[in-house]
Specification:
The protein contains 13 helices and 10 strands. It has helices spanning 17-30, 42-45, 54-59, 66-73, 77-90, 101-109, 125-132, 147-161, 190-198, 212-219, 246-263, 275-281, 316-319, and strands at residues 4-10, 34-39, 93-98, 115-117, 138-141, 170-175, 202-206, 224-228, 284-287, 302-305. Helix 1 runs parallel beside helix 11 and helix 10 packs parallel to helix 11 (246-263). With 342 residues, the chain is α/β, with parallel strands linked by helices. Helix 8 (147-161) links the parallel strand 5 and strand 6 (170-175). The chain is elongated, with a radius of gyration of 30 Å.
C-alpha cells in the first residue's frame, strides 16, 4: 500500500504568503502527496501570559510570548485561498491543521478533504468534536499523550460519527512532540501499539533529525508519514531546525518509495532477478572421470560442483546405480537425459 507523504510546511512561511507558495512548489517538486499548513487566529489560541516553549525561545525569533510569536506567523483567509489554489495548480493536496473553530470553517469553505487534529489539542474536546462534526476524514496526532487520552479523543469523535451513521476514516499518528526529537525517545514501536489498541490506520509524524526514522516507520507499516519542510533550516522561526530542506525532502520521498517496493507481499519465493545468480551459485552433479556409454554410475563418479544447471546434489543417491546411455566427459554436468530409463 502506498504511504501518504505529508510535507509539513507548518509555520515555516514565517507569516509570508510568498514563502508559503514557495514551500508548496518545493513540496510538489519533492514528490510529496500533501503539503500541510497551520491555520489559526492567534488571539483564539494563546493567552497573553502563555510562555513560549524552550525550543520556541531558542528559534522563535525572540518572541516574548506565544501570542506575539503566533501573531507574527498568522496568514489570512485570502492567503489560504491563494495557497489552496496554488496547490491545485501544482497537483499536490492542500491540508492544514486548524487550531480554532473559525479556522475549521475557513478550511472547510476551501474544500479540504481531510482535517488534522494537532497533538496539543487532543484534550480539547470542543475543538475535536467541532472538527468531527464536519464529516470529513480526520488525522489525529498523538504527541505528548497516553493511551487513555487517545481513547478519550477517539470516543469524542465517535460520539458524533456513530449516531449519524457516518463512516469516515480516522488515522492515528504516533509522534514525539520535541523539536528535534531525541532518537532514544521516539519509541517508534508505539505506532504498532496504537494499531493494536484501536484497530485504526496508523502513521508517524517525525521530528527527528534526518530521514531514517521516517523510513523505518514505513517499514513498520505507517500509512502516513509527516515531516517538516523548510526552505532554509537556518531561518528564524520555531520549526525550521527540525525540518528538511527541499533536496533532503526529495531524498526522503525516494527512500520511502524504495522501501515500499522492497516490502513486497510477504510470499517467500525466488525473485526473477535471482535466476542468473541461482544458476551460478548453486551446484549440480558433475562427473569426476570420463564415463563410457553403458557404464553404471558409481558413488565416486560424481561430486557436487557449480553451476546449478543440472541434477541437484540431493539426487545423488538416485543417479548412483543408473546406466549411462552415452559418453560423458570428465568434469561435465550430468542431466537426466544422460541415463537409460531415468
Amino acid at each position: 500500500m502506498r504511504t501518504v507523504i505529508v510535507a509539513e510546511a507548518g509555520v515555516n512561511h514565517n507569516g509570508s504568503v510568498e514563502t508559503a507558495l514557495r514551500l508548496v512548489g518545493a513540496a510538489a517538486e519533492a514528490g510529496a502527496d500533501m503539503v500541510k499548513f497551520q491555520a489559526f487566529r492567534a488571539v483564539r489560541v494563546a493567552a497573553a501570559s502563555a510562555p513560549v516553549a524552550a525550543y520556541q525561545r531558542a528559534d522563535g525569533g525572540g518572541a516574548s510570548s506565544q501570542l506575539r510569536m503566533l501573531q507574527r506567523l498568522e496568514l489570512s483567509y485570502a492567503d489560504y485561498a491563494e495557497i489552496a489554489s496554488f496547490c491545485a495548480e501544482k497537483g499536490i493536496e492542500f491540508l492544514a491543521t486548524p487550531f480554532d473553530e473559525e479556522s475549521v470553517d475557513m478550511l472547510c469553505s476551501l474544500g479540504v478533504r481531510v482535517l488534522k487534529i494537532p497533538s496539543g489539542e487532543i484534550t480539547n474536546r470542543p475543538l475535536v468534536q467541532y472538527m468531527a462534526s464536519k464529516s470529513v476524514p480526520l488525522i489525529l496526532s498523538t504527541g505528548m499523550s497516553c493511551l487513555g487520552e487517545i481513547e478519550k479523543a477517539i470516543g469524542w469523535i465517535r460520539e458524533l460519527w456513530e449516531p449519524a451513521g457516518a463512516v469516515h476514516e480516522l488515522t492515528l499518528l504516533h509522534c514525539t512532540s520535541s523539536y528535534p526529537a531525541p532518537f532514544g525517545e521516539v519509541n517508534l514501536l508505539a505506532m504498532k501499539t496504537l494499531e493494536a489498541a484501536f484497530g485504526l490506520p496508523v502513521g508517524y509524524s517525525d521530528h527527528t533529525p534526518g530521514t531514517e526514522v521516517a523510513v523505518a516507520a514505513v517499514a513498520l507499516g505507517a500509512r502516513v508519514i509527516e515531516k517538516h519542510l523548510t526552505l532554509d533550516r537556518d531561518a528564524a522561526g520555531p520549526d525550521h531546525r527540525s525540518s528538511l530542506e527541499p533536496r533532503e525532502f526529495r531524498a526522503l520521498v525516494e527512500a520511502v518509495r524504495n522501501v515500499e517496493a522492497a516490502l513486497g507481499d510477504g510470499s517467500k519465493r525466488a525473485a526473477a532477478s535471482e535466476a542468473d545468480v541461482k544458476a551460478a551459485a548453486r551446484r549440480s552433479l558433475v562427473t569426476t572421470r570420463d564415463i563410457r556409454a553403458g557404464e553404471v554410475l558409481g558413488d565416486a563418479d560424481v561430486v557436487p560442483k557449480r553451476p546449478g544447471v543440472g541434477i541437484p546434489p540431493e539426487f545423488k543417491s538416485v543417479v548412483v546405480g543408473l546406466e549411462v546411455k552415452r559418453e560423458i566427459a570428465a568434469d561435465s554436468v550430468i542431466r537426466w537425459e544422460d541415463f537409460k530409463d531415468a
